[in-house]
């Protein structure tokens, strides 16, 4: 699908009052998450890229440390909920460290089978099936942009967190240099999967309105920034084969062999440029993602802020 066709079928709307950007209409599950989205078997990407995708995102170790300190004050092991747990790689790592682990993802996602010490369920981020004050840490990493009501998802995170609990959120940065330069070719638009697009200011607004005090913010991600730059540049250069490099790293082939080879060569050429852009844009606070660590202060009714 070309960028022009995407703009026509899936328009984006900017809220003039709160600054949030949202998709003009909701896609069906099959439109947003076709079978190839999840990769093959127990892997989403080819081995080298799969390993890179499992590296802890920026600030997550900080969030884990703060949650561990909170639980240690009461002499117990910490409990974590991963919203959008996927195959459970993050949870399996913390389970080995002695954490109590729970996860949730949409029904079409390949969540882990029942494992000792892991409570993974199918469901919705806006209606978490756990009691109030069950967790020390809630993680929503590159999931909030997928949900139809990010306010409700954040309020649910606040509900299931203990007082003083830690909330980690990571989303693509709509205020990044890459977004501004590539426009409709920007890879993290992920039309039609991404329903909302955030900047540091709009994400902070939602968290503050949901009972959280943001403590740390970063826009740094070398892996996502470099890949996003490469794929966005390829999208801009070849509108007819959108996200074809992504298909390649998943072991799929969404185009002809000659075009796939050309995109692979172009990706190698763009690699150092993507690294440099990520370093400089992040240093300027305009990097490819927004990661925030926030602490639950108190749970309260959502104020009457604009909701597009």
Mind explaining what this structure looks like?
The structure is a single chain. The protein starts with a helix and ends in a 12-residue tail after the last strand. 37% of the residues lie in helices and 19% in strands. Strand 3, helix 5 and strand 4 form a beta-alpha-beta unit. It is built from eleven helices and ten strands. By secondary structure, the protein is an alpha/beta fold. The strands form two sheets. Strands 5-4-3-6-7-10-9 form a seven-stranded mixed sheet, sandwiched between helices.
Low-pLDDT stretches are 1-5, 300-306
First-residue to last-residue Cα separation? 27 Å
Q: What's the tally of helices?
A: 11
Q: Using the CA coordinates, give the radius of gyration.
A: 19 Å
Structural class: alpha/beta
Into which percentage range does the β-strand content fall? Answer: 15-25%
The number of distinct β-strands equals 10
Using the alpha-carbon principal axes, give the shape. globular
- List the secondary-structure elements in sequence, H or E: HEEHHHEHEEEHEHEHEHHHE
Average of pLDDT: 87
Characteristic terms for this protein:
308 residues; alpha/beta; seven-stranded mixed β-sheet; 11 helices; 10 strands; 37% helix; globular; disordered N terminus
